Amino acid sequence: MRCDAVIIGGGLAGAATAISAARAGLQATVLEREAIPKHKVCGEFLSVSTIEALRALGVCPLQLGAVPLDRVRVSAGGAPVEAILPFRAVSLSRKTLDAAMLDAAAEAGAVVRRGVRVRDAGQAPPTAARAGRWHIDASCGALNTDRLVIATGKTDLRGHARPSGVHGAMVGLKRLVVPARTPEPVIDLALFPGGYAGIQPIEDGRLNVCLAVTRAHVRRHGVDGAFASAACAAPHLSATLGALAGETHATANIPYGMVRKAHPSRPHYVGDQAAVIASILGEGMAIALTTGADLGAQLADPDKARAALRKATAAARHRVRLSGVLSHLACSGPGAATLMSAARLQPGLVRLAASLSRLPPHTRETGIDAPHR
pLDDT value at position 168? Predict the structure, then answer.
């Protein structure tokens, strides 16, 4: 079967690519591994850049029940340093958001195939050149296309492994817990030797506790020990977090700080397959949406598509690489202590870091309040 464009992966980047490609007149086919929406290892923090990108694609997080956030707290076992966010932000589970994005892709005219596993995706043999440059071997059958987009998020497709990053081989862990009391509209960043955690409420009343830890920390302390480390790093949340029990979602070998270059002989890579910003800066969803949307809008023309993707990744490059350095620093005891000392001496640094880590804002109206002053 021949398609104008095949997008492997139906997360934020894949759905954004499909929406923009369909709007541009292409018949885009999305192959999504999961048959139904599921929770993913993600901090689920939507910055103003993310909200803007979603609205441009026709999805409003507030209408989906997103929880407004107005502050950020950083702690490392003692009293937290708190700052007002320099912009409005919200929290929304990826399970809810991904489902809405794939629905939007289908409404835009893309073909969305769920529950499809891709076994292989590579160059089509010369004898099949007329069928398309790329051949995809999937559980739904063979597909051929001249436009192949890899949007598999934190999971590498066979033959398309990502290069190492500035702070590579990290492990992501996540639990959704029922809080012992009503949580505040705050994102907490807890630093501990071997990793850090982002903790915030989501739309169903639960807390998303998402960790980025080194493999050495997991080997030494186990998964439960990693969550215990996060709880110890945020003692001010002890009455809220409770036992931190729940189903664990995990992903491994995350190459924080990786930026992959567009190349004429390769497929197009978007989202976490194009650039991986460390969770400590919380801008991964914005990068996924912008790389996907910018590529999809130009996907009909190979040269323009590569140029659009190069521009999108260039806009995020220094933030992505800085995130890898900060991630490495935050995972060490002395590094975390240095960050906390600097934050206590100059609390404005927390607010400044939150501001500088955002992608450049768009000028379109977002429908959310103006930044805090």
Answer: 78
How far apart are the C-alpha atoms of 245 and 144, rounded to whole Å? 45
Q: Do 110 and 20 touch, CB atoms closer than 8 A? A: no
| HEC sequence for the chain | CEECEEEECCCHHHHHHHHHHHHCCCCEEEEECCCCCCCCCCCCEECHHHHHHHHHCCCCCHHHCCEEEEEEEEECCCCCEEEEEEEEEEECCHHHHHHHHHHHHHHHCCEEEECCCEEEEEECCHHHHHHCCEEEEECCEEEEECCEEECCCCCCCCCCCCCCCCEEEEEEEEEEECCCCCCCCEEEEEEECCEEEEEEECCCCCEEEEEEECHHHHHHHHHHHHHHHHHHHCHHHHHHHCCCCCCCEEEEEEEECCECCCCCCCCEECHHHCECCCHHHCCHHHHHHHHHHHHHHCCCCHHHHHHHHHHHHHHHHHHHHHHHHHHHHHCCHHHHHHHHHHHHHCCHHHHHHHHHCCCCCCCCCCCCCCCCC
CB 293, CB 16: distance < 8 Å: yes
Amino acid identity of residue 64, one-letter, is L
Contact (CB, 8 A) for 92 and 66: yes
Q: Give CA separation, 238 vs 282, 297, 298, in Å.
A: 23, 47, 49
126 class by beta-carbon count within 10 Å (0-12 exposed, 13-18 middle, 19+ buried):
exposed
75 vs 56: CA distance, rounded Å? 35
Among candidate residues 152, 191, 217, 208, the one with its CA nearest the CA of residue 74: 191
User: Could you tell me the pTM of the whole model?
Assistant: 0.92
Residue 131 has pLDDT above 70, yes or no: no
Q: pLDDT grade, residue 342 (50/70/90)?
A: confident
Among candidate residues 44, 86, 128, 77, the one with its CA nearest the CA of residue 234: 77
